[in-house]
Design brief:
About 30% of the residues lie in helices and about 35% in strands. By secondary structure, it is an alpha+beta fold. The protein folds into 4 domains: about 5-40 and about 330-405, conserved putative lor/sdh protein from methanococcus maripaludis s2 fold (Beta Barrel); about 45-55 and about 250-325, Efflux pump adaptor protein, beta barrel domain (Elongation Factor Tu (Ef-tu), domain 3); about 55-85 and about 215-245, RNA polymerase II/Efflux pump adaptor protein, barrel-sandwich hybrid domain (OB fold (Dihydrolipoamide Acetyltransferase, E2P), Beta Barrel), CATH 2.40.50.100; about 95-195. The strands form 4 sheets. A 6-stranded antiparallel β-barrel has the order 3-12-15-14-13-16. Strands 4-11-9-6 form a 4-stranded antiparallel beta sheet, with no helix packed on it. Strands 8-7-5-10 form a 4-stranded antiparallel beta sheet, with no helix packed on it. The longest helix has about 35 residues, at about 115-150. The radius of gyration is 52 Å and the shape is elongated.
C-alpha cells in the first residue's frame, strides 16, 4: 500500500516513548475529519519534440536557371518566389496558340452568321444562267433532231448537242444544290466542330500557362533557406534539388498518455512542459484518436510557445506534468495520527466525550482504517471513521483504548 513504509518510519522513530497510564489525563492535539470524494495526483508523462518539415525543392521540368531570388539563411513565407527558369520558348508557343485561337474564333463566327446575302445572290444568278443555257441547248437539240431526220446532218453532230445538254443539266443541279446549302445556312455539326476546336486551343493555352507558372519555384511553407544547391545559368533536370527549405514553425511536442488522463484534457488547455530543466508554456492543439496497441496510450499534441523554438530540437525529450483527479471516497489524516494495527490495517483514535465532563475530558476509542494514498505528510484513509469525528492528530502510540484525554489548548 502506498505510503505504508513512511508511516512505519514515523511510528518507529517514537516507539521507545513510554505509554501513558489510563488514569492520567493527557492533553492531545485533535482535528475534525471531513470526507472527500476525490484526490489529486501529480503525474509526469514523457514525449518528444516532433520533427519539423524539411524539403528539397526543385522544378517539375528541365530548363536553364535564370534567376535565384534568395540566399542561405533568408526567411521566406508560404508562396514566396525562390527561383525561375527561362520561359522565352514557352511565351513564343503561347503567342502562336493565341493566333490560332483568334483564327478559329473568326471561322466560328462566320459559321454561326451563315452565308452572306451577296453569296446567295451570286449563286442564284449562276442557277438562272445555267437554266437559260440549258433551254437554249434543248432548242438547238430539237432542231438538230429534225435536220438529222431529213438527213441534213450526221449522227455525230446530233450526239454532240445531246451530250452538251446532259452536261449543262449536271452543272445546273450542282448550282441549285449550292444555292440551297447557302439558303439553309451552316449545319449544326460544323458549328459544333469549330467550337470544339476553340475549346481545344483554350485547354492547350491553359496547360501552357500552368507550365509557365511552375517555371517559378515557390516556397510550400514558411521556413528558412538552408542550402542553395545551384546558381544562375545552370541547366537543371526535372526534380533536381535547387533549394533546401527548413520549416520555421512553432515546435510541437507529442506526448503519449493513458485514456483516463486524456479525458481531463481539452483542446486549447494551457499546460507547462519541461525541456531539460527549463519550463515552457504549451497549448493542447490536438488529441490523436488512435490508441497505441502496445502501450494503450493516445498521443497529445502540444504547441510550444515561440520562446522554445531556439531550444527545442527534433526528437528531444519533453516532460508534461499533470494533476490527475482520481474519484475515491475517504478522509485525510496526518501520518502522525496513525499507529500500526493488525491484518495490515492502521489505527487512529477518536475522542468520545465523558458524561458530565463539560467537554474537558474524553476517552479515546480506536478506529481501524486502510491507507489509500499518501501525499507527503498526510494520508487518505477509509474505514470505521465517521464524518466530523474528532481524531487525535499526533502521538497515538502514547494512548491505549479508554485513555482519558483532553484537547490541547
Amino acid at each position: 500500500m502506498i505510503g505504508i513504509p513512511r508511516v512505519k518510519e514515523r511510528i518507529a522513530s517514537s516507539a521507545e516513548e513510554p505509554i501513558a497510564q489510563t488514569d492520567r489525563i493527557l492533553p492531545v492535539e485533535t482535528l475534525t475529519v471531513t470526507p472527500v470524494n476525490r484526490y489529486s495526483v501529480s503525474r509526469t508523462y514523457t514525449g518528444e519534440i516532433a520533427s519539423l518539415r524539411a524539403s528539397e525543392l526543385g522544378f517539375e521540368r528541365s530548363g536553364q536557371l535564370v534567376e535565384v531570388l534568395v540566399d542561405e539563411g533568408n526567411v521566406v513565407e508560404t508562396g514566396a518566389p525562390l527561383a525561375r527558369l527561362d520561359i522565352r520558348n514557352l511565351q513564343t508557343q503561347r503567342q502562336q496558340l493565341l493566333a490560332e485561337k483568334a483564327r478559329a474564333n473568326a471561322q466560328l463566327a462566320e459559321l454561326q452568321a451563315g452565308a452572306r446575302s451577296e453569296d446567295i445572290a451570286a449563286a442564284a444568278a449562276a442557277v438562272r444562267d445555267l437554266e437559260e443555257q440549258l433551254r437554249l441547248q434543248q432548242v438547238q437539240r430539237s432542231r438538230r433532231e429534225s435536220l438529222y431526220t431529213q438527213g441534213a446532218i450526221s449522227r455525230e453532230e446530233l450526239d454532240e448537242f445531246s451530250f452538251g445538254e446532259g452536261a449543262l443539266q449536271a452543272r445546273l443541279d450542282q448550282s441549285r444544290s449550292q444555292l440551297q446549302e447557302l439558303q439553309n445556312g451552316t449545319r449544326p455539326e460544323q458549328v459544333m466542330a469549330q467550337q470544339a476546336l476553340v475549346q481545344q486551343l483554350d485547354a492547350t493555352i491553359a496547360d501552357l500557362d500552368v507550365t509557365i507558372a511552375k517555371s517559378t519555384l515557390r516556397a510550400p511553407f514558411t521556413g528558412v533557406i538552408s542550402t542553395k544547391q545551384v546558381d544562375e545559368g545552370t541547366v537543371v533536370g526535372a526534380g533536381q534539388s535547387v533549394i533546401r527549405l527548413l520549416e520555421s514553425a512553432t515546435p510541437e511536442a507529442r506526448v503519449g498518455m493513458p485514456i483516463s488522463a486524456i479525458d481531463q484534457l481539452n483542446i486549447g488547455d494551457e499546460k507547462t512542459v519541461y525541456l531539460g530543466e527549463r519550463s515552457y508554456s504549451a497549448t493542447v492543439s490536438s488529441i490523436l484518436p488512435e490508441v497505441d496497441a502496445q502501450t494503450r496510450t493516445q498521443t497529445v499534441v502540444l504547441a510550444l510557445e515561440s520562446a522554445a523554438a531556439s531550444q527545442a530540437n527534433s526528437g528531444q525529450t519533453v516532460r508534461l506534468n499533470l494533476q490527475e483527479s482520481i474519484p475515491t471516497e475517504g478522509m485525510w489524516l496526518p501520518t502522525e495520527a496513525l499507529t500500526q494495527g493488525i491484518r495490515g490495517l492502521w489505527t487512529s483514535y477518536v475522542l468520545v466525550p465523558e458524561e458530565n465532563a463539560d467537554g474537558e475530558r474524553y476517552t479515546v476509542q480506536p478506529q481501524s482504517v486502510e491507507i489509500l494514498y499518501q501525499d507527503s505528510d498526510r494520508v487518505l484513509v477509509r474505514g470505521t471513521l465517521q464524518p466530523n469525528d474528532v481524531v487525535v492528530a499526533s502521538g497515538p502510540h502514547r494512548l491505549v483504548p479508554g485513555q482519558l484525554v483532553t484537547p490541547a489548548q
